[in-house]
Amino acid sequence: MTTMHEAPKSSARPEKKVTVATASAAAVTVLVFATSQFGMDVPETVAAAAVTLVVFVAGWLAPHTRRS
Questions:
Q1: In total, how many domains does the chain have?
Q2: First-last CA distance in the chain
Q3: What is the pTM of this model?
Q4: 47 is in which domain, residue-wise?
Q5: CB neighbours of 26 closer than 8 A, spacing ≥ 6?
Q6: Domain annotation covers residue 68
Q7: pLDDT at 66
Q8: What local confidence, expressed as pLDDT, does residue 61 receive?
Q9: How far is Cα 32 from Cα 51, in angstroms, rounded to an integer?
């Protein structure tokens, strides 16, 4: 019997939105590192802002994981 206050079952798999946002953060971080290897200086605040904006957009656009 299910009660109203029963916690939903958790899944071992993360939401698609979490996966996409995490991967995009890693991609931007690698991109900033790569640009520094080619002599382009990216200020830390600009790199942090870029990661934040890309993660937001990626998380916004990624679909929700369907739950049954």
A1: 1
A2: 18
A3: 0.73
A4: 16-61
A5: none
A6: no
A7: 82
A8: 94
A9: 9
pLDDT tens digits along 17-59: 999 999 999 999 999 999 999 999 999 999 999 999 999 999 9
Q: Which two tokens stand for residue 47?
A: 């790199």
Q: Pick the more confident residue, 48 or 67.
A: 48
Residue 53 maps to a domain: yes
Q: What is d(CA 62, CA 68) in angstroms, rounded to the nearest whole number?
A: 19
Tokens of 68: 């049954």
Dist. CA 8–CA 5, nearest whole Å: 9
DSSP summary character for residue 65: P
State which amino acid sits at residue 27.
A
Of 63, 68, 35, which Cα lies nearest the Cα of 21?
63
Helices (H), 1-68: 16-37, 44-61
Q: What is the token pair recorded at 38?
A: 């080619």
